Amino acid sequence: MKWQEIAPHVSWVFAFAIAWIALYLAMFIKFGGIVGLHTYSFKATAYLQGACMMGLLWFGFWGWLYYLAIGWGILACLEEIVIVLLLPEAKTDVKGLWWVLRGANR
């Protein structure tokens, strides 16, 4: 029953997966491994995707929450790709692009 609700919108999950894979490729190419950036945007992504899953299980498919969660996740991946490209060396807990640009994490 749930799959029929989600199936028409699954292309957004693939878009998120592509962004996520691109992020990890950028990390491996630049730093030779995975770096735990721990940005606020990715933490928000986890909460949004969790809320989306709980809403799906309890109430059914909510399109607005689904697109918000997936869209936010894609933006978080893009933010981390930019951060990886800007950082001269691997760094953890960078908070976000704003903090990297103003030099708080260098």
TrEMBL record:
Chain ranges passing through the membrane: 6-28, 65-87
Record keywords, A-Z: Membrane, Transmembrane, Transmembrane helix
Keyword Transmembrane helix applies: yes
Annotated protein name in UniProt: Uncharacterized protein
